[in-house]
Write a structure and sequence with these properties.
Shape: globular
CATH architecture: 3-Layer(aba) Sandwich
CATH class: Alpha Beta
Largest sheet: 10 strands, mixed
Bound molecules: coenzyme A
Number of helices: 6
Radius of gyration: 17 Å
Order of helices and strands: EEEHHEEEHEHEEHHE
Number of strands: 10
């Protein structure tokens, strides 16, 4: 594990590739040429990051990630002919860390686009669909968890488009912008019968979970047709 395999799809006119990052491009995450990336509070304020990382921090993160045994990370690349531009990442971390019985497989997802000029174009929503499809169809996870600061409306909306639903709120998770902020914990369940029946094993799923299952199935059908797993 460490980096995820290449997946390609389009978002409007944009050709997007989820693919491993390279050591040479990792400093893009803090590149002053593109406005500072993760050195900008406006980008990291919902990520529990109070400091501005440097290129050296990013290189260290790259090496740590490359060696990680329980993560799959993708760079989010915009491809235009021969040119490839790194704009963010999408991740599944702590894979299997919470499995109690060894039967149930879980991971936690996270994502960021460090160039705000690419926000609001639907890139995260579609990247989440591809990642969800990979997690359920290829890794055989039962559940993906994610946590979002309440004020991060765009992040939550993007997750909900893949069928993530609300589970509970952690109060006072961080302090920013002059207030204590709460964090909503979400989950997305594998809709495929094998995993769905193991997860519920006789318990009755809520109406919300059933509706989310239908949505995640649609997402997986969409991905079957529209995501190229190289
Ligand atoms: C959160 C983030 C990944 C969203 O990426 P994105 O590509 O802009 O998301 P999308 O374009 O797919 O938008 C998803 C939804 O949120 C809405 N949205 C996007 N930005 C928004 C904003 N700032 N405020 C309100 N809604 C917003 C979109 O309109 C869309 O809604 P819809 O489904 O009703 O159309 C991106 O803003 C980001 O990287 N932010 C900084 C890091 C971060 O917060 N990461 C998440 C930590 S949990």
């Amino acid at each position: 594990m460490a980096f995820g395999p290449i997946m390609r799809f389009t978002v409007g006119e944009l050709q997007i590739e989820l693919a491993p990052m390279t050591k040479e491009t990792i400093s893009e995450f803090v590149s002053l040429a593109h406005g500072g990336g993760l050195q900008r509070r406006s980008i990291t304020r919902y990520m529990g990051m109070d400091f501005a990382p440097t290129a050296e921090d990013e290189e260290e993160w790259f090496e740590k990630t490359r060696a990680a045994k329980d993560s799959l990370i993708w760079g989010i690349w915009i491809v235009d002919g021969e040119s490839r531009t790194l704009i963010g990442n999408s991740a599944l971390v702590d894979i299997d860390k919470d499995g109690h019985s060894g039967l149930i497989r879980q991971a936690t997802s996270g994502s960021l686009i460090f160039r705000p000029e690419f926000w609001g174009k639907g890139i995260a929503s579609v990247a989440h669909k591809a990642r969800t499809w990979y997690a359920f169809n290829e890794l055989g996870l039962h559940r993906i968890k994610s946590a979002v600061i309440k004020q991060n409306i765009g992040s939550r909306a993007a997750l909900e488009r893949s069928g993530y639903t609300f589970v509970y709120t952690e109060r006072n998770e961080q302090y920013a912008q002059g207030e204590l902020q709460h964090m909503d914990c979400l989950e997305c369940l594998n809709p495929l019968e094998l995993f769905w029946s193991q997860w519920w094993h006789g318990d009755r799923p809520s109406k919300t979970s059933l509706a989310a299952r239908r949505l995640t199935r649609e997402v997986m059908d969409w991905a079957d047709k529209n995501v190229e797993l190289a």
